[in-house]
Write a structure and sequence with these properties.
By secondary structure, the protein is an alpha+beta fold. 31% of the residues lie in helices and 22% in strands. It contains 13 helices and 19 strands. A hairpin with a 3-residue loop joins β17 and β18. It is globular, with a radius of gyration of 23 Å. The structure holds adenosine-5'-diphosphate.
Length: 497
Amino acid sequence: LLERFLESVAARVGDVEILSGAACAQRYRDPFQLFVDGPPPPAALRPRSVDEVRVIVREANACGVALWPISRGENLGYGGAAPAEEGTVVLDLARMNRILEVNVPDAFCLVEPGVSFIDLFDRLERDGLPLWLSVPGYGLGSVAGNALERGVGNSPYGDHAAQICGLEVVLGDGELLRTGMGALPGSGMWQRHRSPLGPRLDELFLQSGYGIVTKLGLWLMPEPEASAAVEAEIESRESLAGAIDALTRLKRAGVVQDSPVVASYLTQAALHSTRAEWGPPGAALSGEAEGRLRAALGLGWWNARVRVYGPPEVVDLGVARAEHAFAGVPGCTVRVSRWRAGEPMARAHRGLPTAEGLANRNWCGPHGAHIDLAVGLPLSGAEATRYAFFVSETMAAADLDYHAAFYLRDRHILNVVQILFDQADSAMCQVVDAVYFRLIEDAARRGFGLHRAPTRYRAAAMAAYDFGDGAMRRVRERLKRALDPNAVLSPGKDGLG
Ligand code: ADP
């Protein structure tokens, strides 16, 4: 069947690249996998256009072959480019990489899935466009894939999924859909106005496997007149609650627009050093090693940052309020950096797409990797601290280091815990696996859910969402059947068959 499928795709889609064998195995795997779960995907298809995608989907239906669409496949920490199930053909959209529109007055873009953060950033720079892009910690992936997986950045536009405005999607049966105002032929409103008459469908295609997104509209941040970052080193592990509550008050006062972040010292240490420099493997870092590390790298136990954007008066007020907020947190040292329009861009507080975030993979040595746990917590210092201490103690008991960041959103905290490990140490991989499953169960017991999960853990994380004896799962299965009747798309995505 696979042979027949590949032959008919090759015959009907002249321009498609087909990869198989070693080239496919090497490229479409999860470089951060804990275990070799199964054979690599049998083939990958790299189309150039929506029409080609539609032909491929029709052929997949005819031959009963499943497809795993990816944009650039850089979803590191959550499964990379690898399909969830054996035998699935990768549909790699990286060659569909046109930036179709960048609109300055209304601050939006329309991109194809293969457009990377670097591509879009370069376009804005090259043309001197006064628009800022929010980028994730690891900026080499695609704008579309990251937003569709609910990736985050650190700017007022850092909730990437929330900036989506209008999608073009090929459904599992080959139908072509434009969401929102895109459904109204000839409308210029597709990337401007999110709410058509009736239900909004964009959300259906986030983390879902219900369709293949071939165009994505995204709101960008208009360049502000000024910006500032207020960064704080917080000495004591016990001050987390105070820091979170201070930042929450600041956010509620409406003077900061971005999502302030508080991160444990190891998140920074892992970007700039390796574990072996500070202590022997297989045991938690001693208090002495922790002190030495923090002194050498100039880190608080927690390190917080909030950024302010807008007219200079607004920025001044935001900085003053942020300094005041941190002044109430014991053992806190504050540093402010400012930028004004006209000054070198490098000093502006905007994201630069770089591979910097990847540096922490070396923490555990040359075979280092990480998997990430992203959990939504209440916006409360006390609750976040209780959870942080539980997770860090669970990890310490398993001789794992605690790398965690707390992003304060409007009504909740997104807590990302990175579990860094050595892929060459199979005992450690077993431990990491067990800890991850335990943390999923524990989060559910506390009423918290994962908001993103590596492929291996998706089904377990999804199982916790079981109100009404699994009503949400059943409704999703019904949607899946309606939109992808032969289940040719993304099998195993988010625990759906
Ligand atoms: P990135 O390269 O931006 O980090 P990926 O291409 O790895 O992201 O995508 C992450 C996941 O999101 C994929 O495994 C897939 O499930 C989903 N995804 C990405 N792009 C698309 C798309 N264009 N259509 C449908 N699903 C997608």
